[in-house]
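pinging the channel bc i need a second pair of eyes. not urgent but kinda urgent?? the chain im working w is below, pasted from the shared doc
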Amino acid sequence: MLRSLPAGEERRSLTLSDASVSIAPAGEASGPRFGGHAAVFNSRTAIGNPQTVGFFEEIAPGAFSKTIAEGDARMLVDHDSAHVVSRVSAGTLRLSQDQRGLAVESALDTNLSYVNDLVANLRNGNVTGMSFGFQVVKDEWSSEEARGADGTAHEVEVRVIREAKLVEVSAVTFPAYEATDAGIRESIDTALRHRGDPEAIARRTKFRPELAELLGDVPATEPAETTRDDVDTLEEAPVEAEDTEPAASTRDFEAELQAAKAKARAIAALAKALAA
Protein backbone atom coordinates (compact mmCIF):
# COMPACT_ATOMS: atom_id res chain seq x y z
CA MET A 1 0.00 0.00 0.00
CA LEU A 2 1.36 3.43 -0.93
CA ARG A 3 1.98 5.50 2.19
CA SER A 4 1.25 9.21 2.24
CA LEU A 5 4.28 11.47 2.15
CA PRO A 6 5.09 13.95 4.92
CA ALA A 7 3.52 17.36 4.31
CA GLY A 8 5.30 19.22 1.53
CA GLU A 9 7.52 16.32 0.50
CA GLU A 10 7.62 15.04 -3.07
CA ARG A 11 9.37 12.09 -4.69
CA ARG A 12 10.74 11.46 -8.16
CA SER A 13 12.32 8.32 -9.55
CA LEU A 14 14.72 7.08 -12.23
CA THR A 15 15.25 3.63 -13.64
CA LEU A 16 18.65 2.07 -12.97
CA SER A 17 19.76 2.71 -16.55
CA ASP A 18 18.87 6.42 -16.31
CA ALA A 19 20.42 6.60 -12.84
CA SER A 20 23.68 5.06 -14.12
CA VAL A 21 23.93 2.89 -11.01
CA SER A 22 27.03 0.82 -10.39
CA ILE A 23 28.51 -1.21 -7.55
CA ALA A 24 32.27 -0.87 -7.12
CA PRO A 25 34.05 -3.94 -5.77
CA ALA A 26 35.39 -3.90 -2.22
CA GLY A 27 38.77 -2.26 -1.77
CA GLU A 28 41.45 -3.35 0.65
CA ALA A 29 40.26 -1.08 3.46
CA SER A 30 36.55 -0.82 2.73
CA GLY A 31 33.52 -2.68 1.45
CA PRO A 32 31.72 -2.23 -1.88
CA ARG A 33 30.51 1.23 -2.85
CA PHE A 34 27.34 2.38 -4.55
CA GLY A 35 27.41 5.05 -7.25
CA GLY A 36 24.75 6.65 -9.43
CA HIS A 37 22.44 9.61 -9.99
CA ALA A 38 19.21 10.23 -8.09
CA ALA A 39 18.12 13.11 -10.34
CA VAL A 40 18.94 14.34 -13.85
CA PHE A 41 19.09 18.03 -14.78
CA ASN A 42 17.22 19.59 -17.72
CA SER A 43 15.25 16.41 -18.37
CA ARG A 44 11.54 17.05 -18.92
CA THR A 45 9.15 14.66 -17.19
CA ALA A 46 5.36 14.53 -17.41
CA ILE A 47 3.70 14.58 -13.98
CA GLY A 48 0.25 13.18 -14.71
CA ASN A 49 -1.37 14.32 -17.94
CA PRO A 50 -0.14 17.87 -18.79
CA GLN A 51 -3.19 18.40 -21.03
CA THR A 52 -5.59 18.11 -18.06
CA VAL A 53 -4.49 18.38 -14.41
CA GLY A 54 -0.80 17.57 -14.81
CA PHE A 55 2.28 19.45 -15.92
CA PHE A 56 5.80 19.00 -17.25
CA GLU A 57 8.68 19.29 -14.81
CA GLU A 58 12.41 19.93 -15.07
CA ILE A 59 15.14 20.22 -12.44
CA ALA A 60 17.51 23.11 -13.07
CA PRO A 61 21.28 22.67 -12.72
CA GLY A 62 22.39 23.74 -9.26
CA ALA A 63 19.01 23.04 -7.64
CA PHE A 64 20.68 21.04 -4.86
CA SER A 65 23.62 23.37 -4.13
CA LYS A 66 22.32 24.71 -0.81
CA THR A 67 20.99 21.41 0.51
CA ILE A 68 24.29 19.66 -0.27
CA ALA A 69 26.20 22.36 1.60
CA GLU A 70 23.88 22.53 4.61
CA GLY A 71 21.81 19.35 4.74
CA ASP A 72 22.19 15.90 6.27
CA ALA A 73 20.47 13.57 3.83
CA ARG A 74 20.35 9.80 4.18
CA MET A 75 20.37 6.94 1.72
CA LEU A 76 17.59 4.45 2.36
CA VAL A 77 16.17 1.28 0.87
CA ASP A 78 12.67 1.86 -0.57
CA HIS A 79 12.25 5.15 1.37
CA ASP A 80 12.18 3.12 4.62
CA SER A 81 13.79 5.01 7.51
CA ALA A 82 14.36 1.68 9.27
CA HIS A 83 16.77 0.71 6.47
CA VAL A 84 19.40 3.45 6.55
CA VAL A 85 22.32 2.65 4.26
CA SER A 86 24.40 5.79 4.79
CA ARG A 87 24.29 9.39 5.96
CA VAL A 88 26.07 12.60 5.01
CA SER A 89 27.06 13.59 8.56
CA ALA A 90 28.43 10.09 9.19
CA GLY A 91 30.78 10.43 6.24
CA THR A 92 29.28 7.38 4.55
CA LEU A 93 27.20 9.27 1.95
CA ARG A 94 28.60 11.80 -0.51
CA LEU A 95 26.31 13.95 -2.65
CA SER A 96 27.47 16.24 -5.42
CA GLN A 97 26.28 17.85 -8.63
CA ASP A 98 27.87 17.16 -11.96
CA GLN A 99 26.91 17.92 -15.53
CA ARG A 100 24.35 15.10 -15.52
CA GLY A 101 22.58 15.71 -12.22
CA LEU A 102 22.60 14.79 -8.53
CA ALA A 103 25.43 12.28 -8.06
CA VAL A 104 25.31 9.80 -5.18
CA GLU A 105 28.26 7.88 -3.75
CA SER A 106 27.62 5.64 -0.76
CA ALA A 107 29.53 3.22 1.40
CA LEU A 108 27.85 -0.18 1.68
CA ASP A 109 28.36 -1.79 5.08
CA THR A 110 27.52 -5.43 4.47
CA ASN A 111 27.56 -6.08 8.23
CA LEU A 112 24.02 -4.72 7.97
CA SER A 113 21.88 -7.57 6.68
CA TYR A 114 19.62 -5.35 4.56
CA VAL A 115 22.63 -3.70 2.93
CA ASN A 116 24.02 -7.13 2.08
CA ASP A 117 20.60 -7.93 0.58
CA LEU A 118 20.65 -4.62 -1.33
CA VAL A 119 24.02 -5.40 -2.90
CA ALA A 120 22.78 -8.81 -4.03
CA ASN A 121 19.48 -7.40 -5.32
CA LEU A 122 21.26 -4.67 -7.29
CA ARG A 123 23.64 -7.16 -8.87
CA ASN A 124 20.78 -9.55 -9.68
CA GLY A 125 18.56 -6.81 -11.12
CA ASN A 126 15.81 -7.17 -8.50
CA VAL A 127 16.05 -3.55 -7.34
CA THR A 128 15.34 -1.53 -10.45
CA GLY A 129 15.71 2.18 -9.75
CA MET A 130 16.60 5.19 -7.67
CA SER A 131 14.37 7.81 -6.11
CA PHE A 132 14.75 10.90 -4.00
CA GLY A 133 12.51 12.65 -1.48
CA PHE A 134 12.60 16.44 -1.47
CA GLN A 135 10.81 19.66 -0.62
CA VAL A 136 10.66 22.44 -3.19
CA VAL A 137 12.10 25.76 -2.01
CA LYS A 138 11.91 27.71 -5.29
CA ASP A 139 10.16 26.86 -8.53
CA GLU A 140 8.99 28.70 -11.65
CA TRP A 141 5.91 28.01 -13.74
CA SER A 142 5.29 28.92 -17.35
CA SER A 143 2.87 28.00 -20.14
CA GLU A 144 3.63 26.83 -23.65
CA GLU A 145 1.88 25.17 -26.56
CA ALA A 146 2.30 21.45 -27.17
CA ARG A 147 0.70 19.11 -29.67
CA GLY A 148 -0.88 15.82 -28.72
CA ALA A 149 -0.63 12.52 -30.60
CA ASP A 150 -3.56 13.60 -32.80
CA GLY A 151 -1.81 16.84 -33.73
CA THR A 152 -4.18 19.03 -31.70
CA ALA A 153 -2.52 22.00 -29.98
CA HIS A 154 -2.89 22.28 -26.20
CA GLU A 155 -1.61 24.77 -23.67
CA VAL A 156 0.49 23.01 -21.06
CA GLU A 157 2.34 24.21 -17.97
CA VAL A 158 6.01 23.66 -17.24
CA ARG A 159 7.46 23.66 -13.73
CA VAL A 160 11.19 24.30 -13.32
CA ILE A 161 12.55 23.45 -9.87
CA ARG A 162 15.26 26.00 -9.06
CA GLU A 163 16.01 24.98 -5.48
CA ALA A 164 15.11 21.84 -3.55
CA LYS A 165 15.75 20.62 -0.02
CA LEU A 166 16.89 17.01 -0.21
CA VAL A 167 15.47 14.69 2.46
CA GLU A 168 16.75 11.31 1.30
CA VAL A 169 17.81 9.21 -1.67
CA SER A 170 16.72 5.61 -2.05
CA ALA A 171 17.37 2.48 -4.00
CA VAL A 172 13.83 1.37 -4.89
CA THR A 173 12.09 -1.76 -6.08
CA PHE A 174 9.32 0.08 -7.96
CA PRO A 175 10.74 3.30 -9.43
CA ALA A 176 7.59 4.06 -11.43
CA TYR A 177 5.22 4.27 -8.44
CA GLU A 178 4.38 7.85 -9.45
CA ALA A 179 2.61 6.39 -12.48
CA THR A 180 -0.12 5.02 -10.18
CA ASP A 181 -3.24 7.10 -9.69
CA ALA A 182 -2.46 7.70 -6.01
CA GLY A 183 1.12 8.74 -6.72
CA ILE A 184 0.07 11.16 -9.47
CA ARG A 185 -2.60 12.75 -7.29
CA GLU A 186 -0.20 13.24 -4.39
CA SER A 187 2.50 14.73 -6.62
CA ILE A 188 0.09 17.17 -8.30
CA ASP A 189 -1.64 18.18 -5.05
CA THR A 190 1.67 18.90 -3.30
CA ALA A 191 2.98 20.92 -6.27
CA LEU A 192 -0.22 23.00 -6.46
CA ARG A 193 -0.20 23.69 -2.72
CA HIS A 194 3.37 24.94 -2.95
CA ARG A 195 2.53 27.03 -6.01
CA GLY A 196 -0.32 28.76 -4.19
CA ASP A 197 -2.03 29.99 -7.38
CA PRO A 198 -5.86 29.86 -7.01
CA GLU A 199 -6.41 30.32 -10.75
CA ALA A 200 -4.17 27.34 -11.58
CA ILE A 201 -6.11 25.19 -9.13
CA ALA A 202 -9.48 26.42 -10.43
CA ARG A 203 -8.57 25.52 -14.03
CA ARG A 204 -7.89 21.94 -12.99
CA THR A 205 -11.15 21.45 -11.13
CA LYS A 206 -12.80 20.96 -14.52
CA PHE A 207 -11.10 17.55 -14.55
CA ARG A 208 -10.81 16.93 -10.79
CA PRO A 209 -13.51 18.82 -8.84
CA GLU A 210 -12.09 17.70 -5.49
CA LEU A 211 -9.07 19.94 -6.11
CA ALA A 212 -11.29 22.82 -4.96
CA GLU A 213 -10.41 21.70 -1.43
CA LEU A 214 -6.94 23.12 -1.99
CA LEU A 215 -8.46 26.59 -2.06
CA GLY A 216 -9.03 26.35 1.68
CA ASP A 217 -12.63 27.06 2.59
CA VAL A 218 -14.01 26.03 -0.82
CA PRO A 219 -15.96 22.76 -0.48
CA ALA A 220 -15.23 19.91 -2.87
CA THR A 221 -18.90 19.59 -3.87
CA GLU A 222 -22.11 21.64 -3.92
CA PRO A 223 -25.77 20.53 -3.40
CA ALA A 224 -27.08 18.21 -6.11
CA GLU A 225 -29.94 20.55 -7.04
CA THR A 226 -27.53 23.16 -8.42
CA THR A 227 -28.47 24.00 -12.02
CA ARG A 228 -26.65 25.48 -14.99
CA ASP A 229 -28.37 28.84 -14.29
CA ASP A 230 -27.05 28.75 -10.73
CA VAL A 231 -23.58 28.09 -12.07
CA ASP A 232 -23.76 30.99 -14.53
CA THR A 233 -24.99 33.34 -11.80
CA LEU A 234 -22.25 32.23 -9.44
CA GLU A 235 -19.53 32.71 -12.04
CA GLU A 236 -20.75 36.25 -12.78
CA ALA A 237 -21.38 37.33 -9.16
CA PRO A 238 -19.32 40.38 -8.13
CA VAL A 239 -16.85 40.14 -5.28
CA GLU A 240 -18.13 41.95 -2.19
CA ALA A 241 -15.87 44.68 -0.84
CA GLU A 242 -14.45 44.49 2.70
CA ASP A 243 -15.67 47.01 5.32
CA THR A 244 -12.13 48.25 5.75
CA GLU A 245 -10.63 49.65 2.55
CA PRO A 246 -7.36 47.75 1.89
CA ALA A 247 -4.45 48.91 -0.22
CA ALA A 248 -4.93 48.66 -3.99
CA SER A 249 -2.52 45.73 -4.40
CA THR A 250 -4.20 43.80 -1.56
CA ARG A 251 -7.63 44.60 -2.99
CA ASP A 252 -6.63 43.25 -6.41
CA PHE A 253 -5.25 40.04 -4.94
CA GLU A 254 -8.32 39.44 -2.79
CA ALA A 255 -10.59 40.03 -5.77
CA GLU A 256 -8.64 37.54 -7.86
CA LEU A 257 -8.69 35.00 -5.03
CA GLN A 258 -12.43 35.32 -4.48
CA ALA A 259 -13.11 35.10 -8.22
CA ALA A 260 -10.99 31.94 -8.48
CA LYS A 261 -12.81 30.40 -5.52
CA ALA A 262 -16.18 31.25 -7.04
CA LYS A 263 -15.14 29.70 -10.33
CA ALA A 264 -13.96 26.56 -8.52
CA ARG A 265 -17.32 26.30 -6.74
CA ALA A 266 -19.12 26.68 -10.04
CA ILE A 267 -17.06 24.03 -11.81
CA ALA A 268 -17.39 21.60 -8.91
CA ALA A 269 -21.13 22.15 -8.78
CA LEU A 270 -21.53 21.72 -12.53
CA ALA A 271 -19.50 18.53 -12.48
CA LYS A 272 -21.74 17.07 -9.81
CA ALA A 273 -24.92 18.25 -11.49
CA LEU A 274 -23.89 16.66 -14.79
CA ALA A 275 -22.92 13.41 -13.08
CA ALA A 276 -26.26 13.17 -11.24
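so The two ends are 31 Å apart (CA to CA). and Residues 89 and 163 are 21 Å apart (CA to CA). — does that match what u expected or am i reading it wrong
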